[in-house]
Amino acid sequence: MSAGPYNYSYIFKYIIIGDMGVGKSCLLHQFTEKKFMADCPHTIGVEFGTRIIEVSGQKIKLQIWDTAGQESWLTDTRNLTNPSTVIFLIGNKCDLEGQRDVTYEEASKFAEENGLMFVEASAKTGDNVEEAFLETAKKIYQSIQDGRLDLNAAESGVQHKPSQPGRNNLSNDQQANKDNCAC
Amino acid sequence: METSDSEYFESADEDFQSDDEDTKTVSSVTKTEEKPNTKCVNDAIKKLEHVQLEDTQEKNSLNNNKKNDKGKTNKEIEDNINSNEITEDLAQIQATKGPGSKLNKVEASHPTSVKKRSKETDVPKKLGAKLSCKDSVAKPPQESPECVKNVDQKQPKESPECVKSADQKQPKSETSNIEENLWDESEIDWGKENEDDLWGNDDDWEPVNEPTVPPQREKIEPAQVKVPSSSSWGSWGTWDVSSIISTATQSVSTLTQGISTVLETGIGVPDPEELAKINQAEKEKLKEIVPDEDTDNSGFGLGNLVMGVSQLTKLVETTGTKVISGGLDTLETIGKKTMEVLQEGDPGLKKKRAFLKIDQDKPVLSQLLREAKEKAEEENKILEEKHFAKKAKNYETLFDDHQGLVHLEALEMLSKQCDIKLQTLLESYTDEALTEMQETMDQVKELCELPDEEEDEHANWTEIKEKLESAVSEISIPISYKKFVETWEETEAWLNNLKLEICDARELHQQAVETLAQLTAIAVEQFHKAGELLLVKEHRSTADEADSLVQLTTTLTSLIGVVAAKFSDKLNTKSSSSKNKEEINSLITNVFFEAANSSSYIQDAFQLLIPVLQVGAV
Q: SMART domains attached here (chain A) (predicted)?
């Protein structure tokens, strides 16, 4: 916990999944670079982003897997996640209110039914993007504190080691919504 | 004809008298086949038990007859070996009992159950074959009318349950005339079907059928018969490594048991004179067989099996020479059986070998790098705490900083997915298609063999750039080495503007490591992307892709060499004007060390692409 640029207590792995074109890469880019990528190319396979954040005074490195909008990822995450995985539902492109595909009520009901965290965000304006990633990290951290996540079981220890305290799917998990709040 | 069925039980008696174990074995098999029938079979047994008592005396007289019949019996074996006696028996019963009777139903279901199982796997077929073979072996010549009466009554007593079930009604019904007619019909019905199936696969069993050693053969068969009953060969389609091994061990152990019972109960039965003759030949046979099995089995790691075999050998040896030939026969059969089962639907065991190979714990590169990074970071931390000065990052950390690790991890995932895809495909193929696919895969692998490192130290940047470009254009997927080129050009510019007098050797070293790590990370990233793109590419041309990737790999590694050389040049100049040459020299060594690492990472990343290419090729 001493000084140095590479001192962080945890590494959290995030996976962003969702249909093609919902803005996964843009969300990531907004979060890591604080910029909006206007003409974002198709993601090939997986892209990665990292950012070190602080939760409750602990430095946490977020390692974010930005997936291509492929079917396999969606099914994978449905099947492979364990119950303590934090899933955060992001309705992207909330700046385009006029072309909304999914109502806020519908999305939040879906999130509630499935026990997901939910927020509407915009990668373009940056609204709620930071919050979504940070809230997820807080939830994971809380899970660790509560002992719900067994760090040793997942991988190695905690401090300065790439522990894997849960895959966090910032998932745009439902139908494709090209222009509006992806659900 | 009417005498035949009763008579063979008589000669079966010969074994069963001395060999209760065998009877059990056979009956256990029979049970597995006709569970629902056991009840009625048992009833029949009870009924027949008192008949047994009466017959014990007659047995002795029968033995004489048997001896006379022996020579003929051997002949008969050959003649009858192809016919499925079980079905014949069943047919007989059916005939005796008449349609609609309970027993009849039961028996009628028997052959179908056998057939059903045969579809699942070959083994039950063989089981059927063995059973029939046993019966045929036991079948005495038809023209010994003397025994008929005795036999009729005796049958129930010593014959195994399966035989019993087939014959329960016979002794009492005495309707052999009716039998004969119907029997012929039903024989045609069932016998033919099974015959072909059964013996089509059984060429390997010839030695068992040698008429020279009939008594032992009869002992062996129960052991063989046990195999299918004790282990579920039917599940081979979905086997995994542990199950294959455990099944193998299991069957070996059952076989061992089978042998020991054979050995125990077999003592005294075979004609000692005959045995003595055979002994010598068989001993030599054993020598040939056992090492054979050893090499075959250890080849794919079935250590247990080998142990089992050596156990068997031991067992056979210690039981003495008299019995040896019986054991040897069994042993030979076991060996053949084992190979047969292992090779079933898998010629040359390629599938199994391939499968086992995959399961080997090969170290995962990204994992190793990650661990190295952690270790180095920890060490660094301790160092930092001691002397505040050192802030240098190690290679692995830098590699991770440039997303090299995660891309490597993703590439590994991709590679594994392709591997799984290939394996599933392999498993779905048989025979020719399988060999063909394996050949294709081998060809792809050969295409991907990297040429031995040419000491291409003089390769200049323009050449490398050209090579990179041509390689990328050949592969016809939109991967770009722009980033790679840019990174190197930046570094070159930095080096050219470097004022050696001011620059610290450590700083220079740090820059070298950083450049190497960055270039490697970019290379790995591009390999990852290339893999993803190749998988979605529409028209695959494996040869071109492999060529291009090989060229890329060699070019990239040679560039790494160039980078290392440039940095060490600078460091050398520095060293000549410096006081602490040793330190700088160790830095130079380190640069080359990291360069070698970089090259091997790039090559490893390339290796991970091979399954991707293979998927495209098959």
A: RAB, RAS, RHO
